[in-house]
Write the structure tokens for this entry.
Amino acid sequence: MSHTPTKYWHKLDDDRVQCDLCPRFCKLREGQHGLCFIRENYNGEIVLTSYGLSSGYCIDPVEKKPLNHFLPGTPVLSFGTAGCNLACKFCQNWDISKSREIHTLADQASPELIATAAKKLNCRSVAYTYNDPVIFHEYAIDVAQACHEKDIKSVAVTAGYVCPEPRAEFYQHMDAANVDLKGFSEQFYYKLTGGHLEPVLDTLKYIKHETSTWLELTTLLIPGWNDSEEELNEMTQWVVSELGSDVPMHFTAFHPEWKMMDVPSTPFATLTRARQIAIKNGVHYAYTGNVHDEGGESTYCHNCGNKLIGRDWYVLSDWNLDNHGACNKCGTACAGIFESKPGDWGAKRQPVRLKDFAA
């Protein structure tokens, strides 16, 4: 097992060490792991035990992250590690995020190997996903730096549960982020994730106003928990007020998983209602996800209603943006990171063995 040194921690007066990476502030005695599982008190210091180890690699459409306004149609090399710093009872990737069998999951790769593989596979970006890259902070940053040397972008798929100092370092290296805004009440966060709402809102404001990282939001709508009209109104109004109308919002369908097998899947009508509420409250780009809904997956001009980017299960159809990323009908700019032409990766999911790219 690797024991990579870290810097966001301090010693307490009782022989414990406090991890200062995220707002959990785990206080650990020698040999103990934080809730994330991959940060440990080792010889009186907090170390990362998963550096260079992954749960596997796969090429996805960037829209699956989901990012609809960041290099549409392009392939992204995705990977994660074991562990997570939240304890979501509804986790849709619990087999990875809650794994304690790190060596049975692990596929080894250096940052340089990941960057080389991404370049050879013609991936425009690398995504830190499946579990939260916050907890493998040092590895993610090293991978991002190696990728940037080869003109490959970095994408963070995260719950945004991180402290201010490591957050500032992390987002210096991220080109895009999709942040899970899991709900909009402290009760929801505390009861279902074991975390708190305010640090996530702080992260969203930081990314939007203090960095150049492209930002999109995702909310998994869980029947009876975070799907009320009142909460959706409060959430979308906050997004417009604090982040602006141009931050895309994705409302995705819950399916029974992990510790919430007794909760039904999200009705299609709930997703449509959430999207309509967001648009009514001024969100320019609102989407449905985890369901087949071509209308809810596509991008429309918020000025004239022209379909700018048609999507059907991650496959792009219409493309009505000019070379400057504006509506080709009325000239209104569409917020995002676009090129003159979209990619053509489609909906393919392609597992990759990185050892095939080793020298």
Summary: The first strand starts at residue 4 and ends at 5. Residues 4-48 form one domain. The mean pLDDT is 94. The first helix runs from residue 94 to 97.
